[in-house]
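Input record (one chain):
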Amino acid sequence: MQPILVPGGTGRLGSRVVSQLRDAGRTVRVLSRHSHKAESDRDGIEYVTGDLATGEGVEAAVEGTEIIVFCAGSFKGDTAQIQHLVQAASRAGARHLLYISVVGADRVPVVSGVDRAMFTYFASKLAAERAVADSGIPWTTLRATQFYDAFLLVAQQMAKLPVIPVPAGFRFQPIDTDEVAARLAELALGKPVGLAPDIAGPKIYGMDELLRAYLHATHKRRPMIPLWLPGKAARAVKAGAILAPERAVGKRTWEEFMAEQVSSASDSRSSQPSVA
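The corresponding structure, as predicted from the sequence alone:
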């Protein structure tokens, strides 16, 4: 059985997808920009080195694979990466290309300089979606809402400020990364479906609610002030363009995620050896 290629298989989402595929009994090939020679061919995982941004090593990575699960996205944009991957995958005869996108990619207008400064990520995702759909390779695209892991990083950085500016009127429906990974693995093992139903978390939160839950869980206090953002994209987000209430299929809440993070951090501190 041919290995499944997972570009970005060492990242937060990709590593979880790899685990899901391994649990399903599949051999996985991970494409990463960094060498993992010491780990290669261990536990049914093969690591290959390549750079999707430049195309270096991508042809060798796709050789002998038919299913590709793209998990190498970045906030700098996926378009060039997808183009290099599509070119190599087409020549290799891939039969299923699976792309992870974002809910609202087709509903957040990125037209002005202000829009691009804050929301170019959505335009990049939509452009990559189109490149996948136009590739000639049988494809599946899954749009997910923002991940808890990403919000945690944002909250940690914002909590370093003496006063936290909060985008006014912004609402999110974040989801647990593991739940998205499980859905990606399920789709990868099935037939290409084109645009799959969205996947979103169980609850909708205001940005202020997400931050307050983080501050409460970490026993921190910070004043917040509303920040009014201009532009068509910001108005679309405030109107609910990045929400999918009809696809609230996630089970784990942000509060449960934060409780686990705090518990894990506490366990890690308690396991550290004391210094006499």
